[in-house]
Structure formats: structure tokens, C-alpha cells
Amino acid sequence: MSDTPRLAPGKVRRLRRLADADGRFAMLAIDQRGSLFSMIAARTGRAEADVADAEMTAIKRVITEAVAPLATAVLTDPLFGYPHTAPVIPADCGVLVAGEVTGYEAAGDDERLSTLIDGWSVAETARQGADAAKLLLWHHPDASAATHAHQRAVAEEVGAACAEHEVPFVLEIVTYPMGAVRKGTAEWARVKPSLVADAAATFSDPRYGVDLLKLEFPADLKYVEDYADQPYASGEVAYGLAEVRAACEAVDAASGVPWVILSAGVDPAEFVENVRLVGEAGASGFLCGRAVWKRVVDGFPSEAAMREIAREISVPAFEQIRAANAGARPWTAHPYVAGVPSALAL
Amino acid sequence: MSDTPRLAPGKVRRLRRLADADGRFAMLAIDQRGSLFSMIAARTGRAEADVADAEMTAIKRVITEAVAPLATAVLTDPLFGYPHTAPVIPADCGVLVAGEVTGYEAAGDDERLSTLIDGWSVAETARQGADAAKLLLWHHPDASAATHAHQRAVAEEVGAACAEHEVPFVLEIVTYPMGAVRKGTAEWARVKPSLVADAAATFSDPRYGVDLLKLEFPADLKYVEDYADQPYASGEVAYGLAEVRAACEAVDAASGVPWVILSAGVDPAEFVENVRLVGEAGASGFLCGRAVWKRVVDGFPSEAAMREIAREISVPAFEQIRAANAGARPWTAHPYVAGVPSALAL
């Protein structure tokens, strides 16, 4: 990869397909595997191993068919998703295909390694007419050198293949707790801002060839003083809204390329706030998963019931989230994009 | 190429991007090179060799910017077109890139050979995010065995590359007069139906892997008794409307894959009739070039004047042509598409 990154014509064309005409991303994530297996198992009282592939594809199809028409793009997976849901993705809705194995490979005491799906490739993603390759990378700044080296090598591998095929590289970075810190605590909420900013800074290095970062919301509104009266408030306070805004701005400053946020399974009302806040700080939109569709699993296994929930709950939720995205910065206005020679200008 | 053609997922996804949501193609052709050089030379009184590349790109940019927003896809060329016009092609407008050298290489007394642009490839077309590769192939059933062999080899080469990259192969076949027959005569009008049907039948052979044929209107309305009062009537009569309809139906019967027609520089009013008639016979739309934009050259070299003509003449002309396309058969309803295993159905 060159030291002077350049938006190749194919990357520009495909990035434009992922966004709306103004350059804002309003994307649906339905590439979940592990978490969806868990949700179906929990719903049915079965073991995860007893969830059938056809049940996975059926849910993904219902959600995709209902929500994709409202989205600028859909993130899907190559196993239970794209081969089965392609016909219900509108032609003018972009497609991203996930490349990572679901979950993680454990390393050391509490470190996480990402690996690529056997048989998945950027070349195949491009061949099938998708518009972007997405990789989920686990990240913690305090991980061992060996873990960092592994994670960086995976990112470099996908980045190089994306450059070769002029396919946008969408890198999702998910941070995780190490040591005594536990998820879902005020302590975790307090370390989140620095972890997410470190993730953005680390993988903005041109060596990875990332075109769009998919990041966590760099705080947790459940622990914000100004949101203490919201239904999702935890009852504990980690910081105030001013610090949350500062965290969003720090991520924007750290991110050398356009970025969007993921929903991490929060409820739609909370995600609406997430989207609004990061948009004000310079994010270019969202890639929303469980926040918009987790309730659909309540209708499982009835396809009719799932369709009904998708129509009555997921569709209006996605519309609300998209409305909150109006203040996002078009990706074409990001300093990185505006600052490199590209096919954007005549 | 397999004997049992199959619409690969990437081909299906890209074909859908070329058509409207119902599966009808309403496409703009602005890949002309030789004919546009001639038009600019004629307009300015210069030699074709004195027409600058930048003048070619300027015209193509004006036309693309004005008409592409109305089209389901744009056919462009890799020399003066796509690299310069990509930014003004909407993200939801498909892109086809032409692969043939403009004009033809002469063979024998009056035979025509097609050749590929040096450096052009289906792989590069795919890499740059285009949705289809287009090849113009000259055809006459009475050509020599050597000419046929050459033409078929070119088609097979492009077809194989398209199959490899899952890029739709759009094959344009243009017939030409041999012997004493001259273009623009009643005699040429009379032989046209059989030539176009032969072209369609010949290149529907699965060995070429063609996904969409771009064919000439298989008759000439300037020589039709029922159109004798039209401004474009020649004053001579070659046949009646019933024979024209029969010619369109014969082409549809001969075409083993979905097909669209080209405009061959006729005036918009005549092309509207062409589109309506082939649509009734089973065509899936049109790929319209000079018919919609030739008047723009009248404004050359003033970009302001060209923009004005494009807005005042090309845009309403394209809208009229597109309205005439309402009766076309969606490509997804073509027996070939309906009859093969594909990613179309869930």
C-alpha cells in the first residue's frame, strides 16, 4: 500500500453507492451470526447448536426485506445472508459483506483475535457485485504485542486486497475490557472514550487502507448525568453531556477517514441520541444492527409474526434513526476525502 | 464457458443496477468516439485529427450530466468518458463501459472486424465499479469464414472474462451492407430484418455468454407505408407496419437472451416508435445515443450553449423515449432468465 492514499475510481463509485445522494450513510447491519444464534436459542429454549441454518436465513430475509428499502446500504454476511437475501436488497441499496469469523479467538488471559472466514475473499465479494468489504477487528491498546501484530496483519491483508480490487474497506473496531474491568459498568463507561479514540487513531494509519471506520459510540448514555431521566439510564453517573460531546469530538479528531457508528444492541431511543451526537461531532452516519431489529426475534419462528414486528417496530425505528442522521457530515466533506486526489472532482 | 448458462449472483446484481425497479432498461449511450469526432469536425470545419481530447470529454460531460439522472444506466467509453464523467453519473445509475476500438478494421472487399481497445479489460471495468462490459461486434451472415472466426473469437474472449468476473456481457451487434447494397436505401431496409434476426440468433449461442443483446431496430420506418406521412419518411416504401411488427417478433424469437435496441442516430420521434414497437414484441428497453443528444453538438464549443440544448432538447426527448418504453418486457420475465437457476428467486 502506498504512503499516499488515494481514492481509486472504483472505491469512489462504490462508496457513493453506500451513501445517500448527499453522502450520508444510513446503513442496516444484518451480518450478525453468533449473537443471532444466541437470540434464537434464548427465544426457543434450545441450544445454539440446535438452531438451523435455514432459521438464520429466514430471519435475515424478513429483516432485510423490511428495512433495506429504507437504508442506503445493507451489511450482510456471506454464509446466512447475501446468497439468500440478495433478491430482496433493492438495486439502489448498497451491499457490504462481512469477512470475519463471528466472535473471537481467545489469546492470553483476556485478549481477542479476529480471523477471516474460510473461503471469504475481497475478490469474491467484488465478483458477486457487493460494494464494500467489512472486517470486524477486536482492539485494546493494552493487548500484547503478539495480539496487536496479529490484528494489524489481518487488517493489512484485507486492506491490500481492497486496494487491489478498488473495493472500499470498512473496518469495524470493537473494544473489549481487560483486567478487572467488566462490561456494563460505570468503570467500563469511563474507559470507553479513550479506547474508541485509540482504535480510530491506530487504524487510520494509511498502511491499512481503510476507507470508512465503523466505531462504537465513544461513551455510554446510560451513565450520563444529563440523561438520568431516560428509560435506559443505569442509575449511576460516569460523566456529563459535555464530556460525551468531547469524546465524540476526540474520536472525530482521531479518525483520519470518514466514520460511522454501530448500535451495539442499544434500544432505538438511545441510538437516536448516539447518532445525533456523533453527527454533530463529524461522523458521516451509522451502521445500525440489533437496535433496529432485535425485537423481530420475538416473533420467531412465525414468519408472519416476524414480518409484522419488522413492519410495526423496525421500520419506524429505522426512520427515526435516519432522521437523527440529518446533521451528519457527508463523507465527501471529510478532510481526508477533500484532501486527496480522487475521482470526486471533475 | 459451460453449456448450461447460469446467471451468477454478480451478474444478477449488476443487471438489476442497469434497469429500473421493474426490470426495464432506459439507457443512455455516450460511448461514441468516431462519430463524435466527425460531428465536432463537421460543426467546426476542422479536420477530425484537430479535434482535441478535451473537447470530446467536455461534450460527453455536458450530455452525461444532463441526461444520466433520467436514465437507468449510462454506456460510456474508457478513453474520453468514464474517467472524466464518473462524478456526474448518479450512484443509482448503472454504468456500462465499451471495450471495442471505434469504427472497424476492414477485411476483404467489404467486411468489418472488431478489435478491443488496448489496455481495456473486463477486469479493469469491474475494478472501477462499472456494472457491465459492452462490446460492439460487426456482423454480416455472408462474411467470410475468416471474418466470422475473428468476430466470434472476440465475443468469446469478452464473454469468458465477463463470466470470470460475474460482469454482465452486453453485446451490441451492428450489421453492414455487402456487395451492391448501400445503406440508406429501400434495398437495405428490406434486408435489415433478416440480418438483425441472424445476428440475434448467432450470438445467443451460450458459448458467448451474452447476458443482454443490443440490437438495431430490425426495419427502417423511413420506408414503411403506414409512416409515409411522417417527417422522417423517405418517400419510398419497402414494407408495411405488419411486416415491421413481424420483423420485431422474429428478432425476439431469435434472441435467446433479453435484448434492447440502439438508436443509430435517428430522430427522437422515430426512435419513440422504434422503442414502442420492439417493446410490444418482447424487447426489454433501449440504449439510446445520438437520437437524444446529437443536437447538443450544435452548441459546440460553448459549454453554456451545449448545456442549454441538453436541457431544452435532450432531456424532454429522453423522457418521451422512456415513456414509450413502458410496454417493454422486464428482463427478469425473459424466458431465458425465468428458465435458469439464478439468484433471482428466494
Would you write up a description of this structure?
By secondary structure, the first copy, chain A, is of the alpha/beta class. Chain A has a single domain, classed as TIM Barrel (Alpha-Beta Barrel), CATH 3.20.20.70. The first copy, chain A, has twelve helices and ten strands. In chain A, strand 6, helix 6 and strand 7 (about 170-175) form a beta-alpha-beta unit. In chain A, helix 7 (about 185-205) packs parallel to helix 8 (about 240-255) and helix 9 packs parallel to helix 11. The two termini of chain A are about 25 Å apart. The interface of A and B includes residues 11, 86, 87, 88 and 345 of A.
CATH class of chain A: Alpha Beta
Oligomeric state of the chains present here? homodimer
Give the beta-strand count of chain A: 10
Number of domains of chain A: 1
Task: Record the SSE blueprint.
2 copies of one chain form a homodimer.
Chain A: H1 9-18, E1 25-29, H2 34-44, H3 53-67, E2 73-76, H4 82-85, E3 94-98, E4 105-107, E5 111-113, H5 122-127, E6 132-139, H6 145-165, E7 169-175, H7 186-203, E8 212-215, H8 241-254, E9 259-262, H9 268-281, E10 285-288, H10 290-293, H11 303-324, H12 335-338
Parallel strand pairs in A: 1-2, 1-10, 2-3, 3-6, 6-7, 7-8, 8-9, 9-10
Antiparallel strand pairs in A: 4-5
Helix pairs in contact in A: 3-11, 7-8, 9-11
